[in-house]
Specification:
Distance between the termini: 25 Å
Number of helices: 5
Order of helices and strands: EEEEEEEEEEHHHEEHEEEEEEEEEEEEH
Number of domains: 3
Radius of gyration: 23 Å
Structural class: mainly beta
Largest sheet: 4 strands, mixed
Helix content: 10-25%
Oligomer: single chain
């Protein structure tokens, strides 16, 4: 595919169709915006995106995270407005996050999946005992202190009950809450095995457990509690395949109000090249997944090998309907889903 470069024109950020954004440079200070519809790319250097990762958005609002810390905030790419989010524990791991709506919307919520340990949760108690710790260091010396630390690490590895990873939801209303609400995942759903998730009609939907049960997470910001409601009895009926490599995607299509489950099957020398897709649509009335025979005049976009994706209308565009666009390495591929499933 021959691309046309345009370094002078500003990318139309408010366009209806998704952009392929590639951040590069020593500190990720350069950005390449590729418009699939225009077959053109734009080279930019936007200071606000320097050393940031982006995994969630709502309209023109982006959730940005520093690559050097857990500092997160909302940024409006049109007005340059910024809304700082409450701080996270210093040693927790941010796994993924979603934004339900723009901040001016009354249903706006941001939610994070956080992996933390009991040691992290008790960090404040350890900080309060600095005086006791200092006296121990003076009596034992630095060398003995390191040995004690190594012994503790060994014991932690041998006994998960003493210091196990805990999956926690952190959530708040941006610009309203000064601290995150926190709720242990297992206390909500009775299972810590969470799969992919997405936003659909301003609600959070997530796949849970070994059966990938579609579940709606209803957040009550006033009480700081989450209610989990199972939406289906089972998972999509996937065709059996001898290929061990696959990835799943939960994607909203706002143009035709569909919630889609996309199953990618890999092939190739290392079984990592996408070669086949199965698509299911969720029937909210019957509470089950239905294998899609057609996705209509939309195109599905998948960020591979990540587990994120989106969909948009192909009307009045140069995009191909009934197709799945995905990246592999430095190339953009188009998978004609209808021909592949009927041929």
């Amino acid at each position: 595919m021959e691309l046309e470069e345009n370094n002078n024109a500003q990318p139309p950020y408010s366009a209806q169709h998704p952009w392929l954004l590639i951040c590069h440079g020593d500190v990720m200070h350069k950005q390449t915006f590729f418009s699939v519809s225009e077959n053109r790319y734009y080279m930019k250097s936007i200071p606000e995106l320097k050393e940031k990762t982006l995994s969630a958005y709502a309209d023109e609002w982006l959730v940005l995270q520093s690559i050097n810390s857990n500092d997160c905030y909302l940024w409006n790419l049109i007005s340059n407005e910024k809304i700082q989010l409450p701080p996270f524990p210093a040693k927790c791991d941010i796994l993924s996050y979603l934004l339900s709506a723009p901040p001016h919307d009354s249903e706006c919520q941001v939610i994070f999946q956080i992996k933390e340990t009991e040691t992290t949760l008790d960090e404040d108690e350890h900080e309060n005992s600095d005086e006791h710790d200092n006296s121990d260091e003076n009596s034992d010396g630095d060398e003995n202190s390191d040995e004690d630390g190594d012994a503790d690490s060994i014991n932690e590895d041998e006994n998960d009950d003493d210091d196990e990873d805990l999956l926690t939801f952190y959530f708040c209303k941006p610009g309203y809450n000064e601290e995150f609400h926190k709720q242990n995942v297992q206390s909500i759903i009775g299972d810590s095995r969470l799969g992919i998730w997405t936003v659909f009609k301003k609600f959070f939907y997530i796949l849970i457990g070994m059966q990938n049960i579609l579940t709606c997470l209803d957040i009550d910001n006033d009480s700081g509690r989450i209610t989990a409601t199972p939406m289906a009895d089972g998972s999509p009926d996937l065709s059996k395949s001898y290929h061990a490599f696959y990835k799943d995607y939960l994607i909203q299509s706002s143009s035709n109000n569909m919630l889609l489950y996309v199953h990618l099957i890999g092939n190739g020398r290392e079984f990592e090249m996408p070669y086949h897709f199965q698509v299911f649509q969720f029937d909210f009335i019957r509470g089950r997944w239905i294998k899609a025979e057609s996705i209509g005049e939309i195109a599905i976009f998948i960020s591979f090998p990540l587990k994120t994706g989106t969909a948009c209308s192909t009307k009045d565009t140069n995009l191909n309907k009934e197709c799945i666009y995905f990246t592999y390495g430095r190339h953009l591929y188009i998978y004609n889903w209808i021909i592949s499933t009927t041929g």
